[in-house]
Specification:
The structure is a homotrimer. By secondary structure, chain A is mainly beta. Helices cover 12% and strands 32% of the residues of chain A. The interface between A and B is large, with 69 and 62 residues.
Chain lengths: 333, 333, 333
C-alpha cells in the first residue's frame, strides 16, 4: 500500500508534485475578494479560482479503503487537498467499490447535495460517480470591529456513508485525509505530514509500522493532525512546539496564544502547525506519539527523523530506528 | 414536556420574551464600570443593575427534573439566563421537589453561601426556597498591558447537591441550563439554541427525539454548547463554522484564533458562537452531532433546519426530516 | 512524605526559597536576546544564564517515587522548576533507585541525549547519575508579521523510562512535576500550586487526602495544572476564572481569548494561570475538582482555602473543612 503520509523520498516527491499542482491553481494571481458585507447562499460569487479534482475511492489490501488522485493510487490517509480562501474545489468522486460511500469536508461551504451524508441523500452508490462542490471564502465584516470567520484552517475530509449514516465503517477502514484552506500570504511549507489518530492506530497502523516522517535540519515542515474513531487522544511531538492557534505561529509579540507541544486530538477535530525541523535541538530521531500512556505503550507512536542539513544521517539515528523497529513497543525493558 | 431549546415558534416566542425581559434590565443604559484597579471581596460595588429572577425546580415526567421561570414551566435544559458584565442576578430558587438540590453557576462571582454546594451548606432542602446571588464584572488592569479577565462568556448553571455532593443525580436528570454574560457592545442574536451533550444524550434525548432547531436563511443564530456527565464528546455542526474564542467571531484581521467546526465538549465545559443560518451554503437540513463515531451512531445527533428567507421549506428538507425520523439511527443502510 | 504542592506554611516557605533561588538566577539583569532570524541547532547561543540543579529520584513510602532537590526531599509532584526564555537549565539527575528512569521535559529545547527516552538511550540506569540540558529561547521572526514561538509556557517534566519506553510506571508512581518558562516582564505570583490530574487521583491522592491549598484574600496565586495517565479529565475551580491563553490574563481589551473556569486536562497537557485569591467573591473554602461526575464523586476533589487578608479563618471555613474530611466523598447525603 502506498502511503502519502510516509515521507520516503519516492512518496514525498510524488505527493509534492500533486500538492504543488493543486496549490498552483489556487495561487495563480487571482485577486483576493474584498472583505465586505455578507452575501448569503450558494449563489455568492467566488473571487477565487475553481479547481477540478477526480478522486478514486478504492478497496485496499488488509480490509482497508482509500481515496487516491488516480486509479490504483489510493492511500491511507488520502491526498492532502489544498485551496486558498475564495477558491472552489469540484471533486468528482469515482466509487470503484461495492460499498455505499461519500466524501464529507470540514471547514468549507457546500450545499446539501454536497453534504456527503445519507441524511441529504448525498453519497455514491457502489460503482457510482458523483461530483461534490466545496467553496471557501475570506472573513467578512460582522459589526463593529468583528468579522465573521473565513474558511482558512487545517481541516479534513472523510467518508460519511459507509456502514452507518455517519460513515463509521468508512472512517474505520481509512477513508479520510487532510484539507488545507490557506489565507493569502500564509507561509508555505517545504514538507507536509498527515497524522491521523484513529482509535489505537496512527494512519491505521501501529508501531513499529507507523509512518517515519523525514526532513533535513532547518526545513519548514507542516504537520496536519486529525482525530477519528471512538477514543480520545493527545498528540505529542518531542523537541518541537507550536502556538495553539490557526497557524501555529504567533501573529506578533502580543499574540496571547498558548505555546504547546501536546494537544487533544479527538474524533472530528484537526489542527496544523509548521516547525523548522530540529531548530534549536539539532538533528536526530524524535518521537511523536499519543500521550495517553496505554495508547503510546500500545503502539500509537512514530518517528520524526531529522537528518543533517545535507541529508546525511546524524549520529545515533540508525541505532534509534533499529531500537524502535527491533522490539514490539508494548514491552519495556 | 416543554423544551425551550426546541425552536418551534410557540416556544421560541415565549423564550424570546423572557430573554428580552432579562436582557432589557441589563441593557437599560447603565454606564459601564471604569476599567481600573481591583477591588477585593463581595463588598465591591457593581456598576450594573440587579435583576431578580425566581426559578422553580420541579419533577418532570420520565424521571427528569428541570428548572423553570414559572410554576409548571420547568424544562430540560432550563431557561437561558443572561446578564451584562457588571450586573447582579439574584435567583430565588423554589424547590418543589422532595430532593436536596441547588443551583451552581460557572463564570460569575458568588459568596460561599451562593456556591450551591453541600461543602458550603449552600443548597435547598426539599420544599425549601433559597436565594443565590451571582455577580459579574468587567476586566480590570493587572500590570503592564495585562488585564484580569471579566465575566463575559458562554457559561452554564447546574445542580450541585442532588444524589452526591457534586449533584451527579441532579445533572443526570436534567437540572442544567445556559448562562450568558455579555460584554457591552456584543452583537445580539436573533435566535438561541442550547445544546447539552450529556453522556449518550443531547438535552437528555436521543435521536430521533433530539431537538430540531430552526432558523430562516441569514438569521443570526447563537449556539450555546454545554458538556455534562461521565463521557467525552466532540460537538460538530455541518456547513457552519466559528472562531475558537470568546465570541466565535474574529476581533480583526490579525486575530490568531483557529476557526473550527468541531470542538471538544467535555463535562463542565461550555462555549458559544453565532452563525448566520445557511450563510454561504444555502437553506436545508444540516446535522449537528457528536463526532465520536459510536456516539453519533448511538443517537447523539440532531437537526438544524435552515428554512428559506421567507420561512418556507427548501427543496429536500421534508424528505431529509422524514428520513431522520423514519428509522432508528443506530443502523445504516 | 513531603508535598511541595501542599501549601502548609512550612512547605511553602521551603519551596518559595528554592523557587526564588532558581528564579533569581534567571532574573539577574541579563539582557534579553534580540528577536531576530532563526539560528538552527544546539550551537545556538543563549543570551540567558545557565543554571545548574541537582535532582534526586527516590523511592517513597506507598510504592511511590519522586524527584527532590536534596537527598531525602523527594516529593509528589516534584519541585517547580523555573527559567526565563533564553536561560539554560542543566539538571544532574541522581538515580537513587533500583529502576531505570529519566527526566523528560515539555516545551524546552534539548538534544537527543537529553531526550529522556529509551529510544535515544537517554536515561539513568539504577544508581546512575546523568546530566540533562534544557535550553529555552524567545520568539523569533518567521515571515511577514509572524513569529516562530518561544519557549514561554506552563510546562511539565516527567519520567520517560520506567516500566515501558514511555515511562508509564514512573509516571504512575509520581515521577512528574511543573516546569515554568517565563517571558521577561511576566507578572510573578505570591504563591504557586501544582495540580496533577492523574487517572483517578490528584497528585496521586484521593479525597479527603488531596492537597488543601491556602492563600490570603487578594494574594496572587499561580495554578499549574498537569494531566497524566490513561483517563480524560476536566479541571474546574470554584469562584475563580482565567483566560484560556498563555498567561490566563488578557493582553488588552481586544484579546479574543475565551474566559473559562473549566478546562480539559488530558495526559501530557498542561496549562497555568494566576488568580487573585477570593477576588470578587470573598474568603472561604472553594472546591477544585475534576468535573467528570464519576471522577469527582470518586475522590478527584480538593480544597482551596482563601483566608481573610490578615490570615485568620473566615466564618464557616472550619465547618466546611470538617465536612470535607469527615465523610468519604463517594457518598452523598
Amino acid at each position: 500500500m502506498d502511503d502519502p503520509a510516509l515521507s520516503s523520498p519516492r512518496h514525498l516527491s510524488r505527493r509534492s508534485l500533486m500538492t504543488t499542482g493543486v496549490l498552483a491553481a489556487g495561487a495563480m494571481g487571482v485577486a483576493a475578494p474584498a472583505v465586505g458585507t455578507p452575501l448569503t447562499g450558494p449563489a455568492r460569487a467566488s473571487a477565487g479560482v475553481t479547481k477540478r479534482v477526480t478522486l478514486y475511492a478504492e478497496q485496499l489490501p488488509g480490509g482497508l479503503y482509500g481515496y487516491g488522485l488516480a486509479p490504483g493510487q489510493a492511500t491511507v490517509p488520502g491526498p492532502v487537498l489544498e485551496m486558498y480562501e475564495g477558491d472552489t474545489l469540484e471533486i468528482t468522486l469515482v466509487n470503484t467499490t461495492n460499498q455505499r460511500l461519500s466524501i464529507h469536508p470540514h471547514g468549507v461551504d457546500y450545499s446539501t447535495d454536497s453534504d456527503g451524508s445519507p441524511l441529504n441523500a448525498s453519497y455514491n452508490d457502489p460503482g457510482e460517480t458523483r461530483t461534490y462542490v466545496w467553496r471557501s471564502r475570506e472573513m467578512f465584516a460582522a459589526s463593529g470591529r468583528r468579522f465573521m470567520p473565513g474558511s482558512a484552517g487545517y481541516w479534513h475530509y472523510h467518508d460519511h456513508a459507509m456502514g452507518t449514516d455517519h460513515g463509521t465503517a468508512g472512517v474505520a477502514k481509512g477513508l479520510y485525509g487532510a484539507l488545507i484552506v490557506r489565507r493569502r500570504g500564509d507561509i508555505l511549507p517545504e514538507k507536509q505530514f498527515t497524522v491521523v489518530f484513529h482509535d489505537m492506530t496512527i494512519n491505521n497502523r501501529m508501531a513499529p509500522d507507523t509512518p517515519m516522517f523525514e526532513a533535513n535540519l532547518g526545513q519548514r515542515v507542516e504537520w496536519i493532525a486529525i482525530g477519528h474513531g471512538n477514543l480520545f487522544h493527545t498528540f505529542h511531538l518531542h523537541a518541537h512546539r507550536w502556538a495553539d492557534n490557526r497557524t501555529g505561529m504567533l501573529e506578533g509579540p502580543s499574540d496571547p496564544s498558548q505555546v504547546i507541544d501536546n494537544k487533544d486530538l479527538n474524533p472530528g477535530s484537526s489542527f496544523g502547525f509548521q516547525v523548522l525541523a530540529g531548530e534549536g535541538v539539532g538533528p536526530g530521531v524524535w518521537m511523536y506519539h499519543c500521550h495517553v500512556q496505554n495508547h503510546s505503550d500500545g503502539g500509537m507512536v512514530g518517528l520524526f527523523l531529522v537528518r543533517n542539513a545535507d541529508g546525511s544521517m546524524p549520529p545515533g539515528a540508525e541505532e534509534a530506528i533499529h531500537r524502535f523497529r527491533g522490539h514490539t513497543h508494548q514491552h519495556g525493558r
